[in-house]
Amino acid sequence: MSDVGVQESLLKSVAEQVAAEAAELVRAAWAAMRAGGEVRVDTKSADTDVVTAVDRESEDLVRARLARLRPGEPVLGEEGGGSAAAGGVTWVVDPIDGTVNFLYGLPSFAVSVAAQIDGVSVAGAVVEPVSGRRWTAARGEGAWLDGQRLSASAPQRLDLSLVATGFAYDAGRRVRQGRLVGELVSRVRDIRRNGAASLELCAVGAGWLDAYVEHGLHRWDWAAGALVASEAGATVLLPGSAPDLGDDVTYAASPTIAAQLRETLAECGAASV
Ligand code: IPD
């Protein structure tokens, strides 16, 4: 392993350790909530965009651990904000991705922690509190689920491919996103909307989904999951890199259908979502 690879593997271990500790906090809070405990809930950009006290506690824990393990490195988090460092490592944190699932008792949510350098993910971990699954990746080194190497699927036909998506919290944007899904659904095997972008990106890496596309994600939603998908061999496009699909699209697809899906999405009007 090169010196760079050693650095990225070390950052991956830190991301995994910190995400796993926060996931344990989130798991305990979820169990207490399901046993009848109350969780404080506030709203953010829309009445449907929620943040719980557990999101904040999880992010506080991640920030405290990173301050000890990686002193001086800035953190950009969904709840606490922050900004990226030029040149050095910035930690990008979603303390609960899939907060709505968390709140309803659906087990599909995760803690996502990534290390980025100049806006590029170099290491990351996505840890699911309920199942305990740990998804990890380091740039150039591969992606893993619980230590098992991942590789994306290889479907031969777009019309037999399973494609996931998600919706923004803004109502007007949802209408346009719904139209795009309406155009796409007859051209693929089926559509999934699971409610946690990081996990959908990881699922593309595992071959559990053939592709995932969503407009309007925040950096913390994709920073770790997109690295898992790309290190598993998926074709990944990040916000700002695919104007034919829209300025803020996040896209991950198995390489065997990636070009055809991209063309199809463009035909379906993805650029105006
Ligand atoms: C949300 C989830 C959801 C996606 C939304 C995200 P949050 O993140 O990842 O699947 O469709 O766009 O905002 O709010 O649960 O951290």
Automatic annotation (TrEMBL):
Organism: Amycolatopsis saalfeldensis
PROSITE patterns registered for this protein in UniProt: IMP_1 (PS00629), IMP_2 (PS00630)
Swiss-Prot/TrEMBL keywords: Hydrolase, Magnesium, Metal-binding
Protein function: Catalyzes the dephosphorylation of histidinol-phosphate to histidinol, the direct precursor of histidine.
Name of the top EC class for this enzyme: hydrolase
Family: Belongs to the inositol monophosphatase superfamily.
Hydrolase listed as a keyword: yes
Pfam families, per database record: Inositol_P (PF00459)
UniProt pathway: Amino-acid biosynthesis; L-histidine biosynthesis; L-histidine from 5-phospho-alpha-D-ribose 1-diphosphate: step 8/9
PANTHER family named among the record's database cross-references: INOSITOL MONOPHOSPHATASE, INOSITOL-1-MONOPHOSPHATASE-RELATED
Name this protein carries in UniProt: Inositol-1-monophosphatase
MF terms in GO: histidinol-phosphatase activity; inositol monophosphate 1-phosphatase activity; metal ion binding
Superkingdom of this protein's organism: Bacteria
